[in-house]
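2 proteins. here.
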Amino acid sequence: MISYEGWILITGALVGITCGIVGAYLVLRRMAMMADAISHTVLLGIVVAFLITSRLDGVHMLIGAVIAGLLTTFLVQWFHSKGVQHDASIGVVFTTLFAIGVILISTSVGNVHLDVKHALMGEIAFIPWNTVSLFGFEIPVATLTLLIVLIIVLTLILALYKEWKLTAFDPALALSLGLPVVFLHYLFMGLVSITTVASFDAVGAIMVVAMLVTPAAAAYLWTERLSVMIGLSASFGAISAIAGYYVALWLNSSISGAMAMMTGVVFLISFVASPTHGLLAKWIRPPEKKKQVPTN
């Protein structure tokens, strides 16, 4: 029988692992700000799905989030293609769609367990109380959802590893080889969307950005191999979540906030101690001598 604390730790670790895997590709694609945008705009998809079905659970929530994430991606790309700077496109789209979601929550949703604070911050401490019976075993709904999403993420990563690797490093070459670059891009954005909404209950929209970006950025400092980076990013995410829980108990503070803070701690350690890109390595390593240019 898993304890109350055990479910929180498992759920937090699942968030860290899933976000870490997806985040590795986000960092390599230089799309960290898209994670911020999608983590906010999926709120609109969740609210619209609730208004249609009047339920806060079920696959329709993921569908609404995916549609909102894809809409965000499409609008950002469309505005950029029309001459708007990419960062400006992201800022305009995500603030507008997120604002619409906030307005719908405050005016149309009413007195239900869906509000701006819940969507932004999340509350992992409540997760063990909302359970579903599976094979005679009570498991929190959020934990089961995260487990399913992790399986989906791993399946797609394994199936499309070479394709996504190529599109991340050289999209022009991928296009010349006949790969469906646009389809792969939107499929990946859909993956980011379902990962984000699955993490809502645990860490909320704001904190999920830290889980998506920071462990991957830390892993990037340790290796130049994608497979190793994905593994390190997932490990850093899980470590940050577990350590953050105990830090929150020690400080009597927000659990999700402490988890996000620990991703920053992991990054700082990596930034200092990485054997190739860390500050210590740069200080210890002697400066390279300039090569003499041969002369006749």
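next one coming up
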Amino acid sequence: MFRYPSDLSDARWALVEPAPTAWRQARTERALAFGRPPEHDLRDLLDAILYVWHGPPAGWPPRWSQ
């Protein structure tokens, strides 16, 4: 699997993992008894947020050419 420089290391994920897991658990407990269960990995979601926040790796072409 390709990892971006902005992705969380295993050690950092271990530090922040309880918060999003508790959030998802609370949301699941309050949800109605029908519908689809969550299908996205929380670490992947947080990695995506960090990627957008930090931007693409250095050397990538600009998003919009002028």
